[in-house]
Design a protein that fits this description.
Layout (H helix, E strand, L loop, with lengths): L13 H4 L5 H10 L4 H8 L18 H12 L6 E2 L12 H8 L2 H4 L11 H18 L3 E2 L6 H15 L1 H4 L5 E5 L4 H14 L2 E5 L10 E8 L10 H9 L3 E6 L17 E5 L15 E5 L11 E6 L5 E6 L5 H4 L12 H39 L3 E2 L7 E5 L2 H13 L2 E2 L1 E2 L4 E5 L6 H15 L40 H12 L22 H4 L5 H4 L11 H18 L3 E3 L5 H18 L7 E5 L5 H8 L3 E5 L9 H10 L4 E7 L11 H10 L3 E6 L11 H4 L3 E4 L19 E3 L54 H34 L4 E2 L12 E4 L10 H10 L6 E2 L6 E4 L7 H23 L16 H4 L10 H5 L19 H6 L13
Parallel strand pairs: 1-13, 3-4, 3-5, 5-6, 6-7, 17-18, 17-19, 19-20, 20-21
Antiparallel strand pairs: 2-8, 7-8, 9-10, 11-12, 12-15, 14-15, 16-22, 21-22, 23-24, 24-26, 25-26
Length: 981
């Protein structure tokens, strides 16, 4: 049957994703001064790097057709009851948290809370998370989450290394790791230790020797087998030798077991996933990280602190490490630039909802089930080897019975952990029922040949754990009122909504952040993440149960290869900064494989993202900065001079394209050729990929490797500060070095490194040249790959290309409207910008008006500020994305034009230099409605500067926050109740 246009699906995705349409496009092109969109693209992008043909991607699918096909793929996943453990547990997400947080754009679309005045809701929730972590771990301070447990272990090692610098002197030192840690954690530590020259010594904790070169040690509590040991003797022995100790732990176990802090640990970390966050085949999950007060200023990542606003009201903000990479660059202590805020908020809300008595009840129930199962297995003749445990049993038997148990368990839809030929691990969780225990026992019964046993629960045993008093927790936790108030769903819903209303997300208005690409996160892209076939999959489930996920990963890899021009992709890095690290590690491994390990210099333009030099140092490189010229481009003569000077030790170049200044540089191919001429590799930072897709590519410009921010270009939401994903694409010669995994063969039928198992687990999924894993899970935060997969499949090749074209149109339209009012700092010689631009406000500083004043004043108009003072101090960097309509772009432009008039009033003296709408912004409802109004300007001007503001007024919940006060008076947990009066 011939397809008739009016029979085509009406729910096509591109018109819903791309904002401008019809007559608006013509008006925008006229304002920009071009005859067509094609003409604009020709002027914005050098002809020498344009793609010659369309992208080789599947045709676009309608939204309904996509969901129908995806449901078919989802059914290929076999959702067994997984009792594998190893840091991942099934959990019950309270419906009120799932609906009001996880599936709510008010929580998943906001950006990182750099503009704290319009982020008070999620900042309060993240402070709850920090308080929860400090309470449960017994430590003094915690951060607002890290990426996963494995990378948190790497950060723990790095922190202990920093604070032990006096002990080590010029030596790199050794880090001791218990072989009872999770195998994936040990492997991620290898990826972090080797580039820094840290010797990793893995072995029995009882046999560890604390020599003079040892700065730290890591133990797991409970360990990988589920065993729970008293750590006090080990920690005391380590401390006596001047060695600091990090403990990887389990939050739910700590509801019953003595906390690491009470045993003297210096760092405690782990995964908060089992506090209501779905398994999701490995992520995203929020790692937690806590330490002593002495090391608070060494904490990696983000720390939420308490301060006050201009009116003396309590207010929350990010403290200390806020984007420290952009300040310290290659001297930064970590390359962490994102967190897992959305998932940390879910975990915090789980604690708020259940409270201390609820958490203890859940933990007691899990432990009671484990004890009941142990007793029943013993009656069947099985030996359980964990003397003390929380939720995990380790059953030892003969090889024949293990084979029978494996066969029977899989037939029954159960996943256990088979550790070698003679041991079976069973890790229980809060979802377990008596029916599950019956099913487990039937498997072991059939393997033993005995008759079925009836599970008998000892109710009294649930009152106290089965381990000695020294390990039983007696200290209180979650005592703050926030964890003891919101018990009914009504109260919980209202609490969540009260926080949500304090924040600006994409559900409120355009977020014009340069370099951050705040585009539509469509409901159809997001919807499948909650499907059980994807959300309840354990990351180490057997391969034949994960066919659906693997198909999606393979198809997404193929699509990203088509888009980048590369031949291979790794989906493992779970943030952009982790992608940088992984790409650089691959480059390093390539040089080492050629006997050129001495190549250790990376050239980085002065305008680069701050994570670039931080990641380079973490990956074992020395950073040499390349100057930028007067037009903001890479200074090519300086680059050539430095490349030549480092001909023998040049490892490569890190370059962002289009540039961090929002311009397609004409010299990019010459730049890449120069690096190759001297034997180096080119790493392209993919932060600005939203201006490339379908028009040019990293391979076309001459790059060898790049990372892709899926939370930018490919529509994964920013989640109020995470999750992120940063896959890397590589050219053919780098493909053998992509990261593997110790428990899952991520490389399909490609070669693996030998046949030896790791501690009895699955064979290493590593080629002979693969770098160790860079995240705990084989495919990183796998569940949110669905979002980018949907984005590409529903747009198709033409759609993703059009998204790029309209992103460039929207940016140039904003430029055309605002360039009469603000100076545009950098453009191509023909005046065109890429997908973003920088407006220069430095001329106003002499009159007392700074870029921060404009950022705060935009809140009064209902907008989130653009990126402030990056990459150039005193500027605003604006990126509209393709998703915003002309009407929204016009509102934003009108706001900035109105603000320019307010600036002119200050500059001319019409408005007082100190008492003006800019300096006192943002204006809260409480301030505007107060009995007294102390300002020379009117309340109307403060609150409703333009007529359309009144119709949808957003009121910031606090006034301008005093940042120095917050750092001088550092409080990183929920304030005591008297502070609320």
């Amino acid at each position: 049957m011939k397809q008739v246009p009016f029979l085509d699906p009406l729910d096509t995705f591109a018109p819903r994703h791309i904002g401008p349409r019809g007559d608006d496009v013509a008006a925008m092109l006229k304002a920009v001064g071009v005859a067509s969109l094609d003409a604009l693209i020709d002027e914005a992008i050098p002809a020498s790097i344009r793609l010659e043909g369309p992208l080789d991607l599947p045709a676009a699918e309608s939204e309904s057709a996509y969901l129908s096909r995806l449901k078919t793929i989802a059914k290929k996943n076999k959702v067994f009851r997984s009792f594998i453990g190893l840091g991942y547990s099934d959990t019950l997400t309270p419906s009120v948290i799932r609906r009001c947080v996880f599936e709510n754009p008010g929580w998943y679309t906001p950006y990182t809370p750099y503009q704290a005045e319009i982020a008070q809701g999620r900042l309060e929730s993240l402070l709850n998370f920090q308080t929860m972590v400090t309470d449960m771990t017994g430590m003094a301070v915690a951060n607002a989450s890290l990426l996963d447990e494995g990378t948190a272990a790497g950060e723990a090692m790095a922190l202990l290394h920093r604070v032990q610098s006096k002990k080590l002197g010029d030596a790199n030192g050794a880090f001791l790791v218990s072989d009872r840690c999770f195998p994936q954690t040990i492997e991620v530590l290898r990826s972090r230790a080797e580039p820094l020259g840290i010797e990793l010594r893995v072995g029995l904790s009882d046999a560890m020797e604390f020599g003079a070169d040892v700065f730290g040690a890591l133990v797991q509590y409970p360990d990988e087998a589920g065993r729970l040991d008293d750590l006090r003797p080990f920690i005391q022995k380590a401390h006596a030798a001047g060695v600091l100790v990090a403990v990887a732990t389990d939050l739910l176990a700590l509801a019953l077991a003595t906390s690491p802090g009470e045993m003297g640990a210096d760092v405690a970390f782990g995964n908060s996933q089992r506090f209501g966050v779905p398994l999701g085949f490995g992520g995203p999950h929020a790692a937690f990280f806590a330490t002593s007060q002495d090391y608070v200023r060494h904490l990696p990542g983000r720390v939420i602190g308490v301060s006050v606003d201009a009116h003396g009201k309590r207010a929350y903000r990010m403290a200390l490490q806020t984007r420290e990479q952009h300040i310290r660059r290659e001297k930064a202590t970590s390359n962490i630039c994102t967190a897992q805020a959305l998932l940390a908020n879910m975990a915090a809300m789980y604690a708020v909802y259940h409270g201390p008595e609820g958490i203890q009840a859940i933990a007691s129930r899990v432990h009671t089930f484990a004890r009941s199962l142990e007793g029943a297995l013993a009656s069947l003749g099985y030996q359980q080897t964990n003397l003390q445990y929380f939720d995990t049993l380790r059953v030892r038997t003969d090889a024949a019975k293990v084979r029978a148990i494996r066969e029977a368990s899989l037939a029954a839809g159960l996943n256990f952990r088979f550790a070698g030929d003679s041991e079976v691990g069973i890790a229980l969780d809060e979802t377990v029922t008596t029916a599950d225990l019956t099913a487990i026992l039937e498997v072991f019964t059939s393997a033993s040949g005995a008759k079925s046993k009836v599970v008998s629960l000892d109710v009294k045993a649930s009152q106290k754990p089965s381990w000695p008093a020294a390990l039983q927790r007696t200290s209180e936790y979650l005592t703050h009122a926030v964890f003891n108030t919101h018990r009914s769903e009504t109260e919980m819903m209202r609490y969540i909504r009260s926080l949500e209303r304090k924040d600006v997300g994409l559900d409120t208005s355009m977020i014009p952040l340069g370099s951050c690409t705040m585009k539509l996160n469509s409901a159809t892209e997001m919807y499948p993440v909650s499907w059980e076939e994807f959300s309840r999959m354990h990351p180490f489930a057997p391969d034949d149960q994960t066919a659906g996920y693997r198909q999606i990963c393979e198809e997404l890899e193929a699509a990203l290869c088509a888009i980048t021009g590369f031949t291979a992709v790794s989906l493992q890095p779970n943030s952009g900064a982790q992608g940088e690290f992984a790409g650089l590690a691959v480059m390093r491994a390539y040089h080492q494989s050629r006997g050129e390990g001495a190549r250790d210099v990376v050239l980085i333009p002065a305008s680069a993202h701050g994570t670039n030099p931080a990641s380079a140092v973490m990956a074992g490189f020395k950073v040499v900065v390349v100057a930028t010229d007067g037009d903001g481009n890479v200074d090519v003569p300086d680059l050539k001079k430095k490349a030549g000077a480092h001909a023998k030790d040049l490892a490569g170049l890190m370059i962002t394209y289009p540039s961090t200044h929002g311009v397609f540089e004409d010299s990019v191919r010459d730049i890449c050729a120069t690096i190759h001429q001297y034997g180096g590799q080119v790493y392209m930072d993919g932060a600005n990929m939203n201006a490339q897709v379908g028009l040019t590519s990293p391979a076309t410009i001459g790059a060898d490797v790049c990372h892709l921010n899926l939370h930018k270009t490919f529509a994964i939401p920013h989640g109020g500060g995470g999750p992120g994903m940063g896959p890397i694409g590589v050219a053919t010669h780098l493909a053998p070095f992509l990261p593997g995994h110790p428990l899952v063969n991520v490389r399909g039928d490609k070669p693996v490194r030998g046949d030896k198992p790791v501690r009895g687990d699955k064979p290493l999924g590593l080629s002979s040249q693969a770098i160790p894993p860079v995240s705990s899970a084989p495919w990183g935060s796998a569940s949110i790959l669905l979002i980018s997969y949907g984005y590409i499949r529903m747009l198709g090749g033409q759609g993703v290309t059009d998204a790029t074209r309209f992103a460039i149109l929207n940016a140039n339209y904003i430029k055309s409207r605002l360039e009469k009012h603000y100076d545009v700092l950098y453009t191509r010689k023909n005046g065109r910008v890429a997908h973003e631009m920088i407006f220069d406000l430095r001329a106003f500083k002499a009159k007392g008006v700074e870029e921060g004043d404009v950022a705060k004043r935009l809140m009064d108009y209902g907008f989130h500020a653009p990126t402030v003072s990056f990459p150039v101090p005193g500027t605003l960097m604006i990126e509209p994305t393709e998703s915003e309509s002309k009407a929204e772009l016009d509102r934003f432009c009108e706001a900035l034009i109105s603000i320019r008039a307010e600036i002119d009033d200050v500059v001319s003296g019409k408005a007082d230099a100190k008492d003006n709408v800019l300096k006192h912004a943002p204006h809260t409802a409480a301030a505007v409605c107060a009995d007294e109004w102390p300002h020379a300007y009117s309340r109307q001007q403060a609150a409703y500067p333009l007529p359309w503001v009144r119709a949808g007024k957003f009121w910031p919940s606090v006034g301008r926050i005093d940042n120095p006060y917050g750092d001088r008076n550092l409080i990183c947990i929920c304030p005591p109740m008297e502070a609320y009066s």
